[in-house]
Amino acid sequence: MKMAMPKFEISFASSAQSVWMLILTLYFLAAGNGSMAVTMDAYLVFIDQPNGQEIMPFAVQILSSVLDSPTAAVKAIEYVQTFTGPGFSAVLTRDQASQLQSQPGVLSVEKTKKFSLD
């Protein structure tokens, strides 16, 4: 007794459509991925002199109100400064910097500028 083998038909039209659908899907995923990327920049944050408090714990306290946790705040801080006025530098998104500007004790939040000596 012979067993019938299942027939598989490959249609060029359906294969071509599948390939084009795959190419278009990958294109739109790649294009969408770039527009959804979050840009992180360094910002200088000048603060009121904390009364009897070190600047670093005060900076962590302020950043924790904008970021997820004190741990995230510590990771975002690049350095603390006292020479030109109390403050710190932190890596933030534009939205986080905007939120930080409205926090009590924050005098200003400015995106850092990069200069090159060419």
From TrEMBL:
<dbReference type="Pfam" id="PF21864">
    <property type="entry name" value="MORF_dom"/>
</dbReference>
<dbReference type="InterPro" id="IPR054059">
    <property type="entry name" value="MORF/ORRM1/DAG-like_MORF"/>
</dbReference>
<feature type="domain" description="MORF/ORRM1/DAG-like MORF">
    <location>
        <begin position="44"/>
        <end position="116"/>
    </location>
</feature>
<protein>
    <submittedName>
        <fullName>OLC1v1015554C1</fullName>
    </submittedName>
</protein>
<dbReference type="InterPro" id="IPR037045">
    <property type="entry name" value="S8pro/Inhibitor_I9_sf"/>
</dbReference>
